[in-house]
Automatic annotation (TrEMBL):
Its main location: membrane. InterPro entries: MFS, MFS_Riboflavin_Transporter, MFS_trans_sf. It is a multi-pass membrane protein. Keywords: Membrane, Transmembrane, Transmembrane helix, Transport. SUPFAM superfamilies: MFS general substrate transporter (SSF103473). It comes from Marivita cryptomonadis. One of its GO terms (cellular component) is membrane. This is MFS transporter.
Length: 406
């Protein structure tokens, strides 16, 4: 049953569709055409995007800290205003320098309106549903961002050109996300240290040396699994075309990813009461791995391409939930926003190079090899996941500090 306590997460879910659609997915369609008009190579234009993502990672801890201190309402509202005007400004760029500066501002502003800040913002609200469920609801909506915005951006480009398309996307972002963030997050917030209305799952936190070990391997695994995210968003269409498909079919296959993100997230919501986030993350990695395996083996066929997109979409959808719930389960709610900000700082600081690196791989070796390296990244993510301690299996803290004699 949907209650008032579900509305903030549902509203933020809508804003994530638009935020990711305009600040992430639109690049896959528009940047290659901008490169042609601005005299840049494919790797050059995605190298600029990589620098923008890196700069976004630098400001992510600030966004998380501001949410922990002041709540998410004004952070996300002002962030959406700046992001919208930066997207509109992309319609005016006429050279490398202008493109670089505008993408830098857009991606920095994006860190104040996208998933990590949305997760931390809704976790602070004094609601009768647990933060884990709110996070699942937000991502359930956000999964269709590519489904809507890849075909929409392609249609706008074909009808209007890239300059007007950026202007339209920026106006959409401004007129929808700004009021959503202002009104959806105006509810009462929990006071740090006070018990929330909703019961939290009785999950023990990591302590002592295991806490540091858990953070290290979790972040490394997040980096490896997240490294392909920017590459898929930016290069899916280009790489699939290199497998022998048309641009329209590549965009259609990309649009399949979104609904199956939602399918994966809906499945997670159904079983989340009984599924520990560590298991959720493992499931996501397995599905993504299967998707790339199918893509490499039979991705040159239409059924293989669609199956690969569906499997990858389900895995990526569930992974986004785990990215928010696993740190909460392992390390607790205190300082959650700041913690997500620092995780994002490390992850994006490294993963920012992905669009450039994979664009170079595509340009040099072809789309199949670019996808093969993405599969290798997932193998590394799973290997490091296995090293994350399970706090449910750690000995009591007293045993850690006062070992019993043999």
């Amino acid at each position: 049953m949907i209650t008032r306590d579900h509305l903030p997460a549902m509203s933020l879910g809508v804003s994530q569709i638009i935020g990711y659609g305009t600040l992430m997915y639109a690049y896959a369609i528009l940047l290659p055409h901008m490169a042609d008009d601005l005299g840049l190579t494919l790797s050059g234009v995605f190298g600029i995007l990589s620098l923008g993502l890196f700069f976004g990672g630098l400001v992510s801890p600030l966004a998380g800290k501001l949410v922990d201190r002041h709540g998410g309402r004004w952070v996300m509202t002002l962030g959406s205003v700046v992001a919208a005007f930066a997207v509109m400004a992309l319609s005016l760029v006429d050279g490398t320098q202008g493109l670089f500066l505008t993408i830098l501002v857009a991606e920095a502003a994006g860190m104040f309106v996208l998933y990590n800040v949305a997760f931390a913002s809704v976790a602070r609200l004094d609601l009768a549903i647990p933060p884990q469920k709110s996070i699942s609801i937000i991502t359930l909506f956000g999964g269709v961002a590519s489904t809507i915005f890849w075909p929409l951006t392609l249609a706008l480009y074909n009808a209007l050109g890239w300059q007007t398309t950026w202007l339209v996307l920026g106006i959409i972002l401004l007129l929808t996300c700004t009021p959503i963030h202002f009104f959806a997050l105006r509810g009462a917030e929990t006071i740090p240290g006070s018990p929330p209305k909703s019961p939290r799952p009785n999950w023990p936190e990591l302590t002592g040396a295991l806490r540091r070990q858990g953070m290290l391997w979790m972040v490394i695994s997040f980096v490896c699994s997240g490294y392909i995210m920017g590459a898929v968003m930016a290069l899916w269409v280009t790489n699939v075309q290199d497998l022998g498909h048309s641009a329209a079919l590549a965009a259609l296959a990309g649009a399949v990813i979104g609904p199956f993100k939602t399918v994966g997230r809906f499945f997670e919501m159904l079983v989340s009461r009984n599924m520990y986030p560590r298991v959720t993350y493992a499931l996501s990695l397995g599905l993504m791995f299967s998707g790339f395996l199918v893509l490499l083996a039979v991705g040159f066929t239409l059924p293989g391409l669609m199956l690969a997109a569906a499997l990858y979409g389900m895995g990526d959808g569930i992974k986004t939930i785990a990215r928010g719930t696993l740190p909460l389960a392992l390390f607790g709610a205190k300082g959650y926003g700041t913690r997500l900000g620092w995780i994002s700082f490390v992850q994006m600081g490294i993963n920012a190079s992905a669009p450039f690196a994979f664009a170079w791989l595509t340009q040099t070796f072809g789309g199949w090899w670019s996808f093969a390296v993405m599969l290798l990244c997932l193998c590394c993510a799973f290997a490091t996941y296995l090293l994350i301690p399970d706090p449910r299996k750690q000995p009591p803290s007293s045993d850690l500090t006062h070992p019993q004699p043999h």
